[in-house]
# Entry
Amino acid sequence: MLKGKHIILGITGGIAAYKSVVLLRLFVKAGAEIQVVITPSGKEFITPVTLSALSGKPVISEFFTANTGQWNSHVDIGLWADAMVIAPATASTIGKMANGIADNMLVTTYLSAKAPVFVAPAMDLDMMAHPTTTRNIEQLRADGCHIIEPGTGELASHLTGKGRMAEPEDILAEIERFFYNNKSLEGKKILITAGPTVERIDPVRFISNFSTGKMGYALADEASRRGAEVTIVSGPVDISPSERNIKVINVESARDMLSECEKAFPDCDIAVMCAAVADYAPKETAEKKIKRENSDRMQIELVKNPDISATLGRLKKENQLLIGFALETDNETENALRKIKNKNLDLIVLNSLNDEGAGFGKDTNKITIITAKDDIQSFPTKSKREVAVDILDFIETKLHPQ
Ligand code: PMT
# Structure
């Protein structure tokens, strides 16, 4: 897929720069032509000799080549590229890119590049979580950059948290996917629910669950990459889609989610119910904060929430597909089969909290897909992004959306 593609590999000054060597090798192996542009501090972490030996081209770092005075044109390199990949991208470079501070060759090249730009942040967890970094990353996203999310794990500081650069294999996969012109869902409208619902007890308290929206948003991104027109009806989450053309409708409670889904469903071809909807909500929401001094005990009467997928299942027309998820802790397959029937689903994606690496909040999931016609396929633990690919591949090949 990358054969003959021109890729600028931007390397900045972070410890993850050692992984860029692996990434460079993977790109070259995949047939791409690579021009490395490295910041001055990047060279403190990895030598240009290694990079030019692997890429077969002189590495560019300065505006002028010291001994010849030759000018390195950021405009020409920017125009040459089919893609620019900045990995690792430090907080400093991200900040410069977001604010147009073009004081090195890498950022000037970025500003000249017409091609899609992929940014793989890598930094310590506190830098990653800092509002400035969050704001700058959001700005890059708004400017059209593709952010390759960092992973969570042990960092160079020996602290553990979010900030590890995505693995080179995952970055390669992301770029390959981009060039893989699979528009198999073009013309299709897809509704996806994601995240938790929040059911208010009073103005400061609520009932909810641990869903982060990662699975639902990964599905939305993949469907959008395949050309679908995607709407996410999302409970409160801290993430946003990576793809630009996705419509997000934010809701809070199950009732709000139902009402938005009822509006969107008649017009859609496929609906995927990935949200973790609270099954019960307080019968009444107190207008004022319930005071603890008033009583030693507190009883909240809960009432059943509407079942969104079952409601859509009743409305479903022949040319529509309704996909559910089942999050189970016991009798997994039996429960999933029951849900297919009760909710009139075409297919259910089963994930079990008994499987390590599956379920809420994780970057990975382990799923079994079961269709209404008893076709069952289990998959190994994969990133949620890859799981989204598997689910959509399955839907496309086995259910043939009309
Ligand atoms: O968001 P993440 O942190 O990435 O986690 C992903 C996930 C674990 C939330 C996701 O993979 C998942 O399993 N989502 C469904 C969770 C769930 O509520 O499962 P359930 O078995 O209780 O519900 C079955 C199906 O009915 C689901 O499609 C659910 O969206 C739907 N439902 C449930 C209750 C309700 N009142 N209305 C519904 O539509």
